Amino acid sequence: MNLESTSPIGIFDSGLGGLSVLATIHKLMPGENLIYYGDSANAPYGEKNRQQVRQLSTRICDTLVDKGAKAIVVACNTATSAAISDLRRRYDIPIVGMEPALKPAVEQTETGAVAVLATALTLRESKFQGLLEQFRTGRRIFSIPCPELVMLVESGVLSGEKAEAAVAECLRGIDKENLAAVVLGCTHYVFLKQVFEKSLGKKTLIVDGNVGTALHLKKLLEERRQLSGSLTEATIQIDNSAGETLIERSWMILEQYRKMEE
Fold it and tell me: What domains are defined for the chain?
């Protein structure tokens, strides 16, 4: 397939969470055409087994490749953990994954505990376990699965009492006074960043992997001379396996997130 610099970038997630990654990519590279696929009909991935996630991820990537994607961003920590190696062997285009931003959390805080919030599958996969072993020396690192936050965002709830109660439940039992950083290790959780900030206060660093992923993607496209040279804002296409209602909700959530980030 002859891929031009104007060919689209494919982005996918188990549902709506990866829209936060799409927003970051679009802000960094506004000239890039983007195709987003949310698999809300099969969410959450974090409660499935590895083989199921691999099959779902492969099917989505096949679709994005058929649509001419010059690169694919796996905007889902769970799918990255379970399927990234298989996807990179299958396709000859850049496949960019996500991982919990534990490294910047540790590097940007000198002392105190670090809490990594992610799906159960992400936390138990070898990819994260290797990351944990690399950075746990001398620091207390908590791994906390928060599956309820995924479905909260899927339902379009990004703020308010229900969101605050769900975040408080995830953080229940943690000594907030000695908590240096929280890693939002699922792209869904990024939409709740302001709720986390309200719960934790300014002294706790909150980090995610979205910017790092977008910068890595840009570097790969530059190296392949496939970065779009367009000076006008490009197109964004959003698809969802759950149909039109979730596509409409995707646009609504994307707009809410853009306003939150202003």
Answer: 9-98+210-261 (3.40.50.1860), 102-207 (3.40.50.1860)
